[in-house]
Amino acid sequence: MKRIIATVLSAIVGLFGYTIVDTAIEARVSSVESEVVALREEVSALRGQMEDYHGIADIPTTSPNGDITHKPVTTTKKRPVTTVVPTTKLPEKPTDVPTTRPPESTTVTATAVYLVDSGYCGDYATWELYSNGELIIGGKGAMYDATPGWDKYDGIIKKVVIKDGVTSIGDDAFYICRNLTRVTIPDSVTSIGGSAFSSCSSLTSVTIPDSVTSIGSYAFFDCSSLTRVTIPDSVTSIGSSAFQYCISLTSVTIGNSVKVISLSAFEGCSSLTSVTIPDSVTSIDSYAFSGCTKLGKVTLGKGVKSIGYQAFYNCTNLKTVTIGANVTNIDEMAFANCGNLTDVYYAGTEAQWNAITIGESNARLTDATIHYNA
């Protein structure tokens, strides 16, 4: 009996055990299928997003049996870029075509001229400096000595215009205005002060009006670009070193009222080729034309009585000198180191020549050929 009951119980347990196992399997299968369905829906949603945003033409999908396949998808969201290849060879780029871009057109805008500074330069004289470098002196009467206000602008002054009514140019008025190229002096000016234009190295020419009677010492000293000077007949005195070291000066005309060629007046004017001293001059002071190395010919007027110390010293190119009969004294070394001096044309007689007091170190003068009564 016990054996029969055991057998029956065993059969019952076996039957229900398998049923329980099958039921569990079926439940798991159902769960997996639900998950697969959810995954398919998710894949489908992702595929739609990919089509919308990227236009991908090959989207992975899942077959009904669960296999992953690649489903071609046609999309119009984004057209592919097509490269056109020419069927014929394009011509080579010409070598003569400029490779640089042409300059862009520019518009030139005129700069307005404006007043930089102004003030008084005399009791009744005024000055105005403009941005274009023009300095205008106006008003009446004499200018003060020294640079009355514009000295701090000496580097920008290019042109000076002195208006009619101003009577004198003061000492040092335009001293070291190195960019000054032009100056206008009216007929109302009677004197040019000492060092008035000294070291104006860009000044190329100057017209001194007939109203001027005196030119001060160092007035045009070291005006290294000055090429020509005409001193009018109204001028009676030229100060010492007035045109010293004007190294570009090739021509000078001295008026008939000048009495004295002062100390070093034209010393170092190394481009000067000839000079004529008018009859009004009575004295040529020391060093007056010393170091004028290109000076080839000198003509002294009838009124000259004395020639100073080293007046023509080191005029190495000097060949001929004309001397008037009124000369009584030639100071020592007046013609020293004038190695090319060969001819002297003297207006007097041989006896008059012998009566002249000639200082030492003038062998070049005395050894030259003397042409009397010339």
Termini gap: 187 Å
Q: How much strand content do the residues show?
A: 15-25%
Q: What helical percentage do the residues reach? A: 10-25%
User: What sequence of helices (H) and strands (E) makes up the elements?
Assistant: HEEEEEEEEEEEEEEEEEEEEEEEHEHE
Determine Rg (CA atoms, Å).
54 Å
Mean pLDDT across the residues is: 83
- Overall form: elongated
Q: Low-confidence parts, pLDDT < 50 over ≥5 residues?
A: 11-21, 53-62, 68-91, 93-102
Number of strands: 25
Structural class: alpha/beta
Largest sheet: 10 strands, parallel
Q: Please list the strands of the largest sheet in the order they lie side by side.
A: 6-8-10-12-14-16-18-20-22-24
Helical segment tally?
3
